[in-house]
Amino acid sequence: MYIWRRMTGSCVSYYANGTRFVSYYLQGLIKIVTAMFFESKIVRAAILLTIPLAAWGQPGNQIFLTNPSFEDFPHSGDRGGIPGWSNCGPADQTPPDIQPGFFGVSSAARNGNTYLGLVVRQSGTWESVGQRLPQPLEVNQCYEFNLDFRRDTSYVSKVTDAQSLYKFTTPVRVLIWGGNGYCDKGEMLYQSAVIIHPRWLTYNCRLSPKKGTWTHIIIEAYYGSADPFNPTLPLYTNGNVLIDNATPIKQVVCAPDKMPDAKKKPVAAKKGPEKPTMATGAKPNPANSLEQKKPKRGKSFRLDVYFRANEYTFDPGSSEKGLEELYDMLKNDTDISIEIGGHTNNLLYPNESRALELSTSRAKSVADWLISKGVSSERVQYKGYGWTKPVEPNTTPEGRKRNQRVEVTVLTFGG
Questions:
Q1: Which of 129, 151, 160, 215 has a CA 20 to 30 Å removed from the CA of 337?
Q2: Structure pTM?
Q3: CA distance linking residue 362 with residue 283, whole number of Å
Q4: How far is CA 244 from CA 99, 150, 394, in A?
Q5: With contact defined as beta carbons under 8 Å apart, do 346 and 385 qualify?
Q6: Are 118 and 240 in contact (CB under 8 A)?
Q7: Where are the alpha helices (DSSP H) in 250-312?
């Protein structure tokens, strides 16, 4: 950005982010406004003042985290903190670790040289870190950023004063909180699927504060009564998640902006057994057969599965082919693990909670069917996304049909 100094006629370039940018920009702005005032150009001065204020909260702005890749010398939590991050775990437990090199963790970082290691414990405690943001997450605005997660399958450590080493390999979730203090959990903004894969995968984290404007962010490992991936496990257990490579938090357009004019009330879908509604938006096509799809990590594809309107129990007859093909893929290659993702269109808008509940229940019904056929529960996870990830505008019947779908995402393939 270039600011013209009217008093000297010189051109000055300011390049900075965050606080430096605002400080430099305002200093130059004050000089310009002062000169305009004395030249009786108050209207022009007022317009100039509104430009940065209007642009500040627009989609596309980025919030840069401090030390987003968790770079430091490798060390266990009891040997030092993490630059830019505060320990938000229990005071009577050791802080998080900077890996690799400790407790059997040896894998290379996804970005840079080191990464964050968080654990949950059978004592019912878990680790987390937090930091103050250079600018807040505003209420009723939408943001997103990426984080890389993986689970380490070799993590071992001692439990309290025991001499023996215990495995800390149970899959856990990652929660992201917003708050107004370094460890203040004001509102949960994101909950990941269970991190079961032993390789780095990138997760897109969407944040939409509803309860307030938050100045701090907290990243936490979690395993609790609502989250066990395997319900046969005890309530508390020993597990880990490794985290690396956070991107800047970018302000984005909220999902409802992708929906039709709210003045037209959406017509509720009819209930009843008269005709199954396809969740994938197209009739089964042999060309889309799973037999012709080559599994690849991170790849998503639609699943030919059908649900009646506003219901989450799929129609066995019309869904059998798609489900059997998915089952055969998992049976033939035991290295594959997947996420079943449920998605809705906007017909339930503005009932966001119902859309999330319905999409989650539909994804769960597919996961439960696979597990009932003998697929290990550690290879199948599910998540509902409601209407937050449309693939087409919801402005036509065809677009709404394609948005109401079930997708399969390959999390691991080939080990």
A1: 129
A2: 0.57
A3: 18
A4: 10, 9, 35
A5: no
A6: yes
A7: none
